[in-house]
Amino acid sequence: MHRSLAVATMLAALLSGCASGPVAERIGQVDPAAGYRVKARAPQPRNDPATTLILAFSGGGTRAAAFSYGVLEELRATPINGPNGTRRLIDEVDLITGVSGGSFTALAYALHGERLFGKYEAAFLKRDVQGTLLGRAFNPANWPALSSGGYGRSELAAGYYDEILFGGATFDDLLALPTPTAMVTATDITTGSRLAFVQDDFDLLCLDLGKVRLSRAAAASSAVPLVLSPVTFANHGGKCGYREPVWVQSVVDPGNRHRPAGRALMRYGEMKSFQDSGNRPYIHLVDGGVSDNLGLRGILENLEELEASKEFRKEEGLRFTRRLAVVVVNSLSAPDTGWDRDSTPPGGISMMIRAAGVPIDRYSYEQVELLKDVVARWNLLRDAYIQKKVNVEPGYDAASVPKVEFYPIDITFGNIPDDDERRHFMNLPTSFVLPPDDVDRLRAMAGRLLRSSPAFQNLVRDLGGNVAP
Q1: Dihedral sign computed on CA atoms, order 431, 435, 439, 445
Q2: 85, 206, 310, 386: most buried, per Cβ within 10 A?
Q3: Greater pLDDT, 347 or 175
Q4: Are 51 and 322 in contact (CB under 8 A)?
Q5: Which of 205-209, 286-290, 369-373, 413-417 is most confident?
Q6: How many CB atoms lie within 10 A of CB 431?
């Protein structure tokens, strides 16, 4: 941890750096059917529409990238059976959210698909990404660009990510690929709002996400404040005919008896802020972990926005899925500080780091619990709907509206039973370089924890498969 802090401090001291220049094409008119959107993407071949499987990859540098990659490897090695024959559980993945270090795995799998499993280790996980970036930052040849107004440290990083992993690919390049949708997020540093790299969010800014490079999305999502510069986008919000989604009507309708969840109300306020381009002509994005270190906030908001809609309370809304599985890959690191065994209080820098991390960690735990609450409410809505139908339609078939089965799968170092092993993983640094042995241990541990999860075992059995020992 101290080595990582020293490197970060040196980078920040060397380069007071400017933000990355505002790049992205403006759109004249929003087209709800165009662009890289979660709802507009075609499902993978042989994907079961009754099962929604979401992966949430947290932040944490290479530690997070390797841990999340281990989950992909385990899903790839897990066979299931169904009406469409034998397939792999990874083929059921519909959406991958990614934050900071987890954003690299999410975007890389969306781009490379099956090819990722033959290249990711050498290309990224076992490469000294941090050392190379530091070397380039100290290279005098890069100083004129870094000191200019349109090129920052995150721009330098994005160029390197293209060299080793993304090859200049843009979000338009993902549209026709038979891979899950990747939704990586960054944080609007002015308001703390979450901005996802999907066209629905870029509609708020009247920008075309399709021309944005994946490397810039990864750079924004992992732009740790002070260490890396913000990634800046020009904002033209409010000037492209943006139409608010249907669920917003439930928020603004004073006659709505069902008060939406607080996150839906808060998101509505954030949407209005992004559209205020008159007062906010530029949006500066930093590490997504500042607003959502698990990548779950967007999932929660989407589910609660759906719940806020009057349409959801009709039979069609309650039929939308039979199984909802969310695999939360939480790469939380909790190094042993030893503070509680020493009468001398910790220093200022150490306290500043922990003061930023502790609220994020606690909020991450709450998000998993809130997700369980959402599904519980859905099933209560289902029961109320069925009772209402039975009262007016004797003999109504209650089985026609299936109960939503929820599989909350939490993959975290805290679930490691062995004390020494757990301590080892908890003390891995948040950096973009790890020894190759630690990369391999992270991948193997992810598979072990996934296989030992009761919720995962239930999901595999319900999909006609068996969990390997």
Answers
A1: negative
A2: 206
A3: 175
A4: yes
A5: 205-209
A6: 21
Nearest to residue 222, comparing CAs of 162, 294, 164, 157? 157
Is the pLDDT at 332 greater than 70? The verdict is yes
On whether the CB atoms of residues 109 and 179 are closer than 8 A, the answer is yes
The residue written with tokens 């810039």 in the block is 216
Kindly state the tokens that stand for 172.
């338009």
Question: Residue 20: beta bridge partners?
Answer: 231
H helical segments located in 195-314? 199-204, 214-221, 247-252, 262-274, 297-308
Rg (CA), the chain: 22
Q: Which two tokens stand for residue 28?
A: 């004249």
The owner of tokens 């930093």 is: 286
What six digits make up the tokens of 110?
């969306």
**What's the pLDDT tens digit per position in 418-451?**
999 999 999 999 899 999 999 999 999 999 999 9
> Can you name the residues that pair with 323 across neighbouring β-strands?
51, 405
Per-residue pLDDT band for 147 (boundaries 50, 70, 90) equals: low
Helices (H) and strands (E) in the chain, counts: 17, 12
Taking residue 17's Cβ as centre, other Cβ atoms within 10 Å add up to 22
Tokens linked to 358: 């502790």
264: exposed, middle or buried (Cβ count in 10 Å: 0-12, 13-18, 19+): buried
Residue 159's closest CA among 214, 109, 84? 214
CB atoms within 10 A of CB 234: 16
Position 225 confidence tier, pLDDT thresholds 50, 70, 90: confident
Dist. CA 142–CA 376, nearest whole Å? 54
Structure tokens at 296: 């779950």
At 358, the amino acid letter reads V
Phi, psi of 325 (to 5 degrees): -120, 130
CA gap 281, 235 in Å, rounded: 5
Please, how many CA atoms are within 13 Å of residue 234, restricted to the half-sphere of its CB? 12
Evaluate whether 284 touches 188 at the Cβ level (below 8 Å): yes
pLDDT of residue 110: 97
Residue 65 pLDDT exceeds 80: yes
CA distance 120 to 133: 18
267 vs 466: CA distance, rounded Å? 40
Looking at residue 8, its pLDDT comes to 47
DSSP string across 345-381: PPPHHHHHHHHHHHHHHHHHHHHHHHHHHHHHHHHHH
Helix (H, G, I), strand (E, B) or coil at 99: strand
The tokens for 175 are 């549209």
pTM: 0.86
60 and 331 Cβ atoms separated by less than 8 Å: yes
CA–CA distance from 442 to each of 55, 93, 221, 404 (Å)? Answer: 17, 21, 22, 32
| Residue 286 DSSP one-character state | E
